[in-house]
Amino acid sequence: MSGPKSSEKGTVFVALFSGINVGGNRIVKMAELRSFFEELGFTDVATYVQSGNVVFRAKKGDAAWLTKQLEAAFEKKWGFNSRIMVRDAGWLERLVKDNPYPEVAGEPTKLHAYALEREPTAEETKRLAEKCTGPERFEIKEDALYLHAPDGLGKSVFANLIPRTLKVPGTARNWRSVLALLDMAGKAGG
């Protein structure tokens, strides 16, 4: 198991934003988001698609500290709050390695990963399992939830129930985005 990709240049992280550029609301241009990270002193900054995914390198701080810094600075600049999940490159590597549904990894619109703010309790997980009556399947591993939605996320009634049933804040990405971010983190770590 390799630890976070760190060197004297710093550690590679990914920031996953929720609730920006959805339905024409809370518009944040990716070029502006990239500049925002650079102005905060981060390096090797790269963004991926409009939902708000940023790979960056930080000289100091861990994911929790960086989350607080970024959320406060983001709200100050854009005037609204976006929940941000910050994870190191090692977390992304584990996320891909631990995928419980490898047979659907080739269908990225049907496989989604949620970065959760914390690991759900057994009670919270049980409550969610009771709502999962098919055709979806899900599995939670620590602070990640894997969802296989055979008909896609848009048509999944269960996917809409996840946030309010689990009550653990999180943000979802399809498998294509997960793999793209891992690839970008690997390049940043090179």
Automatic annotation (TrEMBL):
Superkingdom assignment: Bacteria
Pfam families: DUF1697
Protein name: Uncharacterized protein (DUF1697 family)
